[in-house]
């Protein structure tokens, strides 16, 4: 007979198996669910994700901190979104088998959390697939002491969790779950509950009883779990975390999310915590005055873009985090000249890390224009980075080198990815580049973009495609190329029934005029342009434009009915 079959107590005259007895004492509404309504966080999604990522990273890798802690206290007023954040973290941890147990006393239906907390946690430990032997010991404890559910919290914890942990020596604990999450700690306890001692005590004392019991567990080397608490800043709870639990606790405050300063401070703290952990940096970094400066700079920009860009610059830099932060702040004018002075200085610093900042800025602007549909024949589309890398330099090494240091501004797919487009983190980058008063020598105009586009388009024509690309990729690149609009300032190289009508020799920066048609028949660009001299684009001196006579025509293809191969 297994422990789950054994009978320990009766309910309405019916004997219960240990697992049934345990289940009878859990708080049924204490488990997180995506269907349960709770207050959404009162901050931007980027801040919410930063907090959730930091919690997940602490759960998995908090032991790498310079000063590791076993408790994380999430503190904030009612309605700030604590339950929403922890519910998402709990669901993510459950999917990864990292969640040992959770208790959400802020969720309905109302119960007596003080008495149901430990049985609810123990029940989930029994159910966890990675710790079956521990579950056996817990059920044995229920069978041996049926009255355990009437004991005080500390005694319940000792009987249902700590003693089974001391008995469990069979499992490899590296595969065990890592965290217990307790939300709504301030809601735990009733106003007049009498504990197992028969002595009446108030809600604050019940909360202290819970906290003292769990702190005893945390201090025991056999207790393998971290604990995340979330609560309002109630005096009794704050006194506990500021007092006896201080050395075990890291605090994440969600206090002032109604102001941009409060949200910026939270975002930066969550991000810096992960950077410190990754690089083994002491918790005192960055110093208070630096954090204050970052918050002030972000507030002037009126959004999170400044703070988020600083963090990405630190994360992507080859410099140490301390040096990268120093560089990011180094060019900011004091006092600021205009509201975006600090953001502009940051963008300038990042772009200047490219081998050719002006050239890189022009390519960023052209990539955005192409992917917004300005140079596409049919409908708006985003071309993969794989194609644009070859198109902008004919060989990918040039673009990769130019953009490599700009990952804090854009997402660059890995070289083997042939489908994902470049994407940019924030439109404010292009507002900066297109405003000459803000960007100065990095200013990008339509003329700069269009000159580069024309030169690169004609370069593909001259080379009859992408000869430097690996042979298997050449047709694929041309399939994308024919979707680009071959328009220039004054003319086209397409007619209705041909692909590229001629080979063209040119110097980058020219303007091609519209050839004349005769009787509506398809025109010959070669006949119209051969031997003529046309002005170089945008008011510069003239240049000879030599057209070779051979034609490049479309023929049937298995793909989209078009053969995009260019004959040699």
Indicate the structural class. Answer: alpha/beta
> Per DSSP, what share of the residues sits in E-state strands of 2 or more residues?
5-15%
Radius of gyration: 33 Å
User: Outline, from the CA principal axes?
Assistant: elongated
Q: Runs with pLDDT <50, length 5+?
A: 1-6, 191-200, 488-568
N→C terminal distance:
82 Å
Number of helices: 21
The major beta sheet can be summarized as: 5 strands, parallel
What is the helix fraction of residues, given as a range? 40-55%
What spatial order of strands do you see in the largest sheet?
Answer: 4-5-6-3-7
* Mean pLDDT across all amino acids: 79
Oligomer: single chain
Strand segment tally: 15
Explain the overall architecture:
The protein is an alpha/beta fold and 568 residues long. Helices cover 43% and strands 9% of the residues. It has helices at 18-23, 45-61, 82-95, 113-127, 132-144, 153-167, 203-218, 235-242, 260-279, 288-301, 305-316, 321-330, 341-351, 357-371, 385-393, 396-403, 428-433, 436-439, 446-462, 471-481, 525-529; strands spanning 9-11, 14-16, 71-75, 99-104, 179-183, 226-231, 249-253, 410-411, 423-424, 487-488, 491-492, 504-505, 533-535, 542-544, 546-547. A five-stranded parallel β-sheet has the order 4-5-6-3-7. A two-stranded antiparallel sheet has the order 1-2.
Structure characteristics:
five-stranded parallel β-sheet; 568 residues; disordered N terminus; 21 helices; alpha/beta
């Amino acid at each position: 007979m297994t422990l789950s079959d054994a009978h320990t107590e009766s309910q309405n005259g019916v004997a219960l198996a240990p697992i049934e007895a345990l289940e009878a004492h859990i708080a049924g509404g204490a488990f997180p669910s995506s269907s349960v309504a709770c207050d959404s966080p009162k901050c931007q999604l980027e801040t919410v994700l930063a907090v959730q990522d930091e919690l997940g990273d602490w759960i998995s890798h908090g032991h790498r901190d310079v000063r590791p802690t076993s408790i994380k206290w999430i503190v904030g007023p009612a309605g700030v979104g604590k339950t929403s954040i922890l519910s998402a973290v709990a669901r993510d941890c459950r999917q990864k088998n990292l969640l040992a147990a959770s208790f959400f006393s802020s969720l309905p239906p109302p119960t007596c959390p003080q008495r149901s907390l430990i049985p609810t946690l123990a029940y989930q430990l029994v159910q966890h697939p990675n710790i079956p032997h521990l579950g056996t010991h817990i059920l044995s404890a229920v069978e041996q002491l049926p009255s355990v559910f009437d004991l005080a919290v500390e005694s319940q914890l000792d009987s249902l969790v700590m003693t089974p942990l001391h008995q469990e020596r069979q499992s490899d604990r590296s595969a065990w779950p890592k965290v217990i999450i307790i939300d709504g700690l301030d809601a735990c306890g009733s106003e007049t509950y009498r504990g197992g001692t028969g002595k009446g005590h108030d809600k604050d004392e019940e909360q202290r009883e819970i906290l003292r019991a769990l702190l005893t567990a945390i201090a025991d080397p056999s207790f393998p779990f971290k604990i995340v608490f979330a609560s309002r800043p109630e005096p009794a709870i704050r006194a506990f975390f500021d007092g006896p639990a201080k050395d075990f606790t890291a605090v994440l405050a969600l206090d002032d999310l109604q102001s941009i300063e409060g949200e910026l401070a939270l975002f930066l703290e969550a991000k810096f915590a992960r950077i410190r952990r990754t690089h083994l940096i002491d918790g005192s970094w960055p110093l208070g005055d630096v954090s204050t400066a970052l918050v002030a700079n972000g507030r002037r920009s009126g959004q999170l873009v400044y703070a988020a860009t600083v963090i990405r610059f630190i994360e992507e830099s080859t410099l140490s985090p301390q040096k990268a932060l120093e560089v990011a702040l180094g060019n900011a004018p004091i006092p600021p000249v205009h509201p975006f002075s600090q953001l502009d200085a940051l963008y300038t610093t990042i772009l200047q890390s490219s081998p050719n900042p002006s050239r890189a800025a022009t390519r960023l602007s052209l990539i955005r224009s192409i992917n917004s549909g300005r140079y596409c024949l049919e409908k708006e589309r985003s071309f993969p980075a794989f194609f644009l890398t070859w198109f902008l330099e004919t060989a990918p090494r040039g673009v990769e080198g130019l953009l490599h240091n700009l990952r804090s501004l854009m997402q660059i797919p890995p070289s083997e990815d042939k489908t994902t487009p470049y994407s940019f983190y924030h439109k404010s980058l292009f507002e900066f580049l297109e405003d000459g008063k803000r960007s100065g020598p990095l200013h990008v105009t339509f003329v700069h973009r269009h000159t580069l586009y024309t030169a690169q388009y004609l370069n593909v024509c001259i080379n009859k495609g992408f000869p430097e690309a690996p042979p298997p990729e050449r047709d694929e690149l041309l399939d994308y190329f024919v979707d680009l609009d071959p328009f220039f300032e004054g003319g086209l190289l397409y007619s209705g029934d041909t692909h590229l009508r001629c080979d063209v020799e040119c110097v980058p920066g020219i303007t091609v005029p519209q050839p004349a048609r005769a009787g509506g028949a398809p025109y010959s660009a070669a006949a119209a342009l051969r031997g003529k001299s046309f002005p170089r684009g945008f008011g510069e001196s003239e240049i000879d434009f030599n057209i070779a006579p051979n034609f490049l025509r479309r023929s049937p293809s298995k793909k989209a009915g078009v053969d995009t191969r260019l004959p040699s």
